[in-house]
Every structure is written in C-alpha cells, then in structure tokens.
C-alpha cells in the first residue's frame, strides 16, 4: 500500500508549490499583456488579441484570489482555528472542503478548456464539425464542474473524500483530461499538417506543369541518375533536393526546411504544454481516488 502523508503537511506543500507557480504566472501574464497590446503583434488580429488578453486577465485574477485564499486557509488551520479544532491541523485540513477555493479552481479550469476549444475552432477554419466533440466534452465538464461546486458548498465541513463529492470530482477530472487530450491532439496535428511538403504549380504560369516535370525528370545524364535514385522513369514524378540549397522541391512546389523546423517546434510546444497540464490532472485524480492527502 502506498504510504500517505498527513493532511497538514500536504497542505503546506501545496501552498508552497502554488506560490512558486503563481510567481511564474505573474511574469507570464505581464509578458502577455505587453505582447497583446503591442501594435507590431496585434496589427491584423485585433479581435483574437482582445479575446486572449481578456481570458488571460480573468484567469490571472482568479489565480490571485486562489493564492490569497490558500494563505488565509493556512493561517486558519495553524493559528485562528487551532484552539477550536480537536486533533489540530491534520483534522482541520482533512475535514474541510474549502468550497470557495475549489470553485475558483474549477472556473479557472473551465476557462482554460474553453480557450483551448476556441483555438481548435479557429485553427480549423471555424469548422463546427471538427470542433463539435471538443465542445460536447466542454459542456460535460461545465455541468459536472458546477455540480462539484454545489456539492462542495453543501458539504463544506465534510471530508474531501465524501462520496457525495467524489463522484462529481472524478467526472470533472476525467472530462477535462479528455478535453485537453483531444484539443491538444487536434491543434498539434493541424500545425504538423501545415508543415508537410505540398504540391504547387503557380496558376499564372501556363508552362508550370512542364517546368515542374523538367525539374523532376530532366533530360540529361545527371537528371537521369537522380530520377533512377528516386525510383521514377523519364515520365514519372518524384522529389529532389537542390545541391547547396535548403529548399526541397516537390512537383514544382517548395517547402523551406527552416520554416518546417519552426512548425515542428510549435508542435512540440503544444504537446509539451498539454502533457504538463494533463499529467498533473491525472496524478491529482489518481491520488484523489486512492483517498490520499497528497492529491
């Protein structure tokens, strides 16, 4: 059996970790404010910049309130409520749900999930068909999240592992993890698809097709050797790389390798950020289901 830690020790560790992450959040938030108010960035995308700035401000305000309540609850358990709590801080933190802070956490989670779904909607050209599964998961998360808030309020002085709360908390975590996984996968795939080589012949060039075939097949010994290496004959099609060039030619089109590397780095950035959040939520869900204070 996994060894657990006392509830008061878990709470102190949680508040300390939250303080560190909140400090990082302050730096990130004001950096985003500078970016989203810069004319060099917002020119041509004023609407999306306003949406992102509004979301960031609301989420920062909620995070600030959450951190403040955590400090207050820490003082309550170890100072103000200590004389009236039989068993001391371990019992105080295990037998109180702290509904205000839990509600802020859930609302912040819903805001983050809705922003991610909005990104899927925008990056796929406002396609409702592709975004529909993510929207349904978001609606489910909203319903279970609100039910969790209501259950916390009704059972304020019950155990955090009370069965009336456990089922709704579990559903909320499962749905938000599913939303994160689906939306992150869709966004990462879209960016990856945009980085792939593509076929392109300029419509303004009537001889484009002939030029493309000439680039690929050629009519000299050097081009014949290259065609053989690519597995295509004199009438086939294929791809080749110019010597001394950083561009790949695909049937007359060109994809810059440096640009492709930038796209792939964005893919990894999206995947990593999604993995951090999903991993943290998964650990919290598992420890909660095991009735462990560490969660």
TrEMBL record:
Residues 209-245 are annotated as: Disordered. The keyword Membrane applies. Keywords: Membrane, Transmembrane, Transmembrane helix. Residues 209-222 have a biased composition (Low complexity). It comes from the Eukaryota. The chain crosses the membrane at residues 20-40, 52-71, 103-122, 134-153, 165-189, 266-290. This is Uncharacterized protein.
């Amino acid at each position: 059996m996994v060894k657990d830690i006392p509830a008061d020790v878990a709470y102190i560790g949680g508040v300390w970790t939250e303080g560190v992450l909140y400090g990082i959040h302050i730096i990130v938030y004001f950096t985003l404010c500078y970016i989203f108010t810069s004319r060099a960035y917002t020119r041509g995308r004023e609407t999306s910049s306003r949406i992102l700035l509004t979301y960031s401000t609301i989420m920062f305000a909620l995070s600030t309130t959450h951190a403040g309540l955590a400090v207050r609850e820490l003082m309550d358990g170890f100072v103000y409520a200590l004389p009236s709590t039989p068993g001391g801080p371990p019992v105080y933190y295990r037998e109180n749900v702290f509904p205000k802070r839990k509600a802020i956490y859930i609302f912040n989670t819903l805001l983050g999930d809705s922003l991610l779904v909005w990104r899927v909607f925008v990056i796929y050209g406002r396609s409702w068909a592709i975004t529909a599964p993510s929207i349904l998961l978001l609606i489910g998360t909203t319903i279970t999240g609100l039910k969790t808030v209501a259950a916390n309020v009704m059972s304020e002085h019950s155990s955090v592992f009370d069965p009336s709360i456990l089922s709704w908390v579990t559903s909320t975590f499962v749905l938000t993890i599913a939303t994160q996984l689906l939306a992150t996968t869709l966004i990462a795939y879209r960016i990856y698809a945009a980085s792939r080589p593509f076929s392109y012949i300029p419509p303004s060039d009537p001889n484009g097709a002939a030029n493309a075939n000439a680039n690929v097949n050629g009519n000299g010994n050097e081009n014949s050797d290259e065609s053989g290496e690519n597995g295509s004959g004199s009438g086939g099609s294929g791809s080749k790389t110019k010597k001394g060039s950083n561009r790949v030619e695909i049937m007359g089109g060109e994809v810059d390798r440096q640009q492709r590397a930038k796209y792939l780095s964005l893919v990894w950035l999206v995947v990593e950020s999604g993995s951090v959040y999903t991993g943290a939520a998964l650990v919290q869900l598992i420890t909660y289901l095991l009735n462990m204070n560490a969660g």
